[in-house]
Amino acid sequence: MMDLNQQQHSLSALIVFENTMNKELVRSLHVYRFEDGNEKQVEREFLFKKRGSYVEMMATPIFKVKEFRVSDFFQGRVFGVWLSIFVFDAHFPPTLNHIPPLLLISGNAKLKSIPRLADDLKKVFQLTFQADELRSASQRALKEAGERDREHSPRFRRIVQDLNCLPDSDDMCECHANEEFEQCASGNMQRKRRAASEDVAKISLNDLVKYFDLPILEASRNLKVGLTVLKKKCREFGIPRWPHRKIKSLDSLIHELQDVGQQQKDDEVAVAVVTKRQEKLKEERESIERKPFMEIQTDTKKFRQDVFKRRHKARALKSQGSSSLPIQLL
């Protein structure tokens, strides 16, 4: 019987499952490789309480008994009542934005209460971050080589392309717009120097929060870093997607309710309902600023959809000369 505490070992694979019947139950399968080449599988089970700390429980092996191999697992596969939500294989590490927010220690402090899973998740993050760095370095090298080739080929127009963006996509426009140039006395255009690594490292989550209400391109300009650098910082903080659209959507609903409150200020009941809804939306906005990986609540999505429908009906009635419909507040 191999003891993990007594022998040198490395994390070879980690698969995390969520119980489809009770989402607070989470199971993990850890594969450790020892110096002599042997591997050991360890299954663990946890209770991810919505209120209170997470707890590790006794786990009866399930996957080991059924003799599953790591290659049999992929994200989204269901094994009985267990849904695979994350798969890590040291030979094929995923990108950082493929790690669920639930498993990011930077975004989920409760993971610290279950150190055996948290420690392995840290290893996954480090290995994945290193793989991302290698991919970025390779892309930069290819980009620089391509630019040198174009510079020596006057027949071709020099195009600056960020390899992190797909050609002819919306991101491509942002990437092009993000390239900043300055004009020299000779009239030639030169690209500005990149932000210093020390300055980039100093950017904190609080710095990003200040610009969540702006599009990511505008935020990168205010932070004086490139778009690619900002996206990398977001991944470091466990932000899979820039939350500007969510913040903007909530702000729009809050302002909409302010207008409704002014229109119905003589109706005390309606004003109370509007005020209650506004407070709820403001609290949700603050929650997203604290935890930008959070999604807009289902109740808010339904309310937003109702607002969109009533706006459409109001425009249709207005075109017919009728009065507009009030927004459904509840």
Entry summary:
With 330 residues, the chain is an alpha+beta fold. It is built from 9 helices and 8 strands. Among the domains are: 120 residues, no CATH class; 76 residues.
Pick out its properties.
9 helices; 6-stranded antiparallel β-sheet; single chain; nucleus; RWP-RK domain-containing protein; about 325 residues; alpha+beta; DNA-binding; RWP-RK_dom
Describe this structure in words.
Among the domains are: 9-128, no CATH class; 244-319. The chain is built from 9 helices and 8 strands. The chain has helices at residues 115-151, 170-178, 197-202, 205-209, 216-223, 227-236, 244-263, 268-290, 298-319; strands at 9-19, 25-34, 39-47, 55-57, 78-79, 82-89, 181-183, 189-191. The chain has a 6-stranded antiparallel beta sheet, covered by helices on one side. Strands 7-8 form a two-stranded antiparallel ribbon. A hairpin with a 2-residue loop joins strand 5 (78-79) and strand 6 (82-89). The chain is globular. Residues 156-166 and 168-187 have low confidence and may be disordered. GO terms for molecular function: DNA binding; DNA-binding transcription factor activity.
Task: Give the SSE map.
Blueprint: E1 9-19, E2 25-34, E3 39-47, E4 55-57, E5 78-79, E6 82-89, H1 115-151, H2 170-178, E7 181-183, E8 189-191, H3 197-202, H4 205-209, H5 216-223, H6 227-236, H7 244-263, H8 268-290, H9 298-319
Antiparallel strand pairs: 1-2, 1-6, 2-3, 3-4, 5-6, 7-8
